[in-house]
Amino acid sequence: MLPTTSPQSNGNPSSRDAARHTAGAKRYKYLRRLLYFRQMDFEFAMWQMLYLFTSPQRVYRNFHYRKQTKDQWARDDPAFLVLLSIWLCVSTIGFGLVLDMGVVETLKLLLWVVFVDCIGVGLLISTLMWFISNKYLLKQPRRNFDVEWGYAFDVHLNAFYPLLVILHFLQLFFINHLVVINSDWFLGYFVGNTLWLIAIGYYLYITFLGYNALPFLSNTVVLLYPFALLGLLYFLSIFLGWNFTWGLCWFYKYRVQ
Hints:
The chain is mostly helical. It has one domain (about 35-255). About 70% of the residues lie in helices and about 0% in strands. The longest helix is centred in the middle third of the chain and has 34 residues, at about 105-135. This is Unc-50 inner nuclear membrane RNA binding protein. Keywords: Membrane, Transmembrane, Transmembrane helix. It is found in: Nucleus inner membrane.
């Protein structure tokens, strides 16, 4: 994060500017806007969600514009997070219906998915990527250049959204209908595992784009290396008859019992 300077300070940042651009101040501003829906730009957030599927590079170009105009890489508008939460809740309720769960079981599943799978795992992944990028990927380790934790969290949310739509929404229509991917039938687990391949591939690629967009990072291509392991697991799963969707459904049912 680059420090800003006040025009009256002859190159020395004023205490007011410094306070305004601290991580705590940015976090407070972001969380405060969660209480004011009218201040959120949902139309722009929906535009980002669309382009995460069709042209994710355009989404990260907008992060560049935000850095130039607001001196921060991370989002200052929680509209994307709110819409993502709505998608998560609706799709989880859909899973409850598809798996014939009762109201209480569906509510328990929703709490697990929101607070553990999304928030908990998201915080863990974001913190890990924030540490790795600042520790090993900086071109010139200097105090004036670092990856904002909020930006690492935004990259995770960007990458998580296509995965959510594919595995938590689109996949619902295949579990008990069409090719019935929650079964031992070859076509079933072939289609199901292919959806997993596409979803996780999206996650890895959009994560790579997020860190590759930062001009002060180098060797970000290493973030694409997990594609080799992903491809290997996919072909092994088809050869050995592993059904990832069946495993997810079993795990969800086991959680709420």
